[in-house]
Amino acid sequence: MEDGALPPPRFGVHGQVVGLEKVADNITAMQIAVEAPPLAFAPGQYVALTLPDQKPRDYSLSWRSTPFLLEFFVRDHKAGGASSFVARRLRVDDEVCFDGPFGTMTVDPIHQGPILCVAFSTGIGPIASIAAAIADQQPEADLHLYWGAAEAQELFLLDDIAAALPLNGQLVLCAEDGDPASGIIRPGSPLDAIKADFDTLDGWQAYAAGPPRMVEAAAPLLHSLGLTADAFRADAFFTEQDKQKSPS
Ligand SMILES: Cc1cc2nc3c(=O)[nH]c(=O)nc-3n(C[C@H](O)[C@H](O)[C@H](O)COP(=O)(O)OP(=O)(O)OC[C@H]3O[C@@H](n4cnc5c(N)ncnc54)[C@H](O)[C@@H]3O)c2cc1C
User: Fold this and answer.
1) HEC assignment per residue over 8-19
2) Which domains does the chain have, with CATH numbers?
3) Nearest CA to ligand 1 atom 17
4) Residue pLDDT, tens place only, 80-96
5) Pocket of ligand 1, candidates 102, 237, 242: which has the most ligand atoms within 8 Å of its Cβ, to mutate?
6) pTM (2 decimals)?
């Protein structure tokens, strides 16, 4: 989809919770059926979701979302806000309301070269959406997805994600508690792994999503490897507090 043609947001859309599944100790996959008409969105976008008696919070659409059924991965920050509500009190059949879709971290329709996708924690939702959309458009794309989390148990639905990638896509998993002997999950952050694996990102396109401190650390690293400013699209998962502090 062309950037200029992103679907317009809708406001006050109603939906109903139809699925709640723990995919890691502190992460819930939340599925919401959209009241007709279905929601047009571009992979990588998010909605502002209002849960019962909660303030609105932004959540990104996963790669398994459709215009009729939206899915989000919500990490419980255990501070009593919307994310804790999802983990502890939200129930199947609850009614929700949302505005959206929003966001411009969507697939660059022009780029034809290699692609680096970087996800931190629940940033995998929109990042795997981007990767899956690229796989649909360019099945042979040279795409490398680096995904990291604090703990290995927070890396979930690995078979699903691998199946969503282009034919020769690479999935690199990292965790702070990764075991070097396992050969599957590398210890450290995805940025450590990228630093070790790449000499140059000249001619690449990159996407990144997840907690602000990680996304903000990704930008200077990728640019130092030759990624141009216009070839980087990112969504930092700012909290409401972060947004209030921001001058913009
Ligand atoms: C564009 C965008 C997309 C997003 N997509 C997702 C998504 O797909 N999945 C997802 O889980 N979240 C996502 N977020 C973050 C989400 O909107 C909320 O900020 C998050 O769920 C916390 O909301 P809360 O109401 O539980 O906590 P709040 O009531 O907003 O905050 C309470 C306290 O929780 C703690 N806290 C909150 N967030 C964090 C954090 N990131 N790191 C450390 N401590 C924190 C802080 O102490 C904070 O003071 C996204 C944010 C943005 C801006």
Assistant:
1) CCEEEEEEEEEE
2) 3-102 (2.40.30.10), 115-236 (3.40.50.80)
3) 58
4) 899 999 999 999 999 99
5) 237
6) 0.95
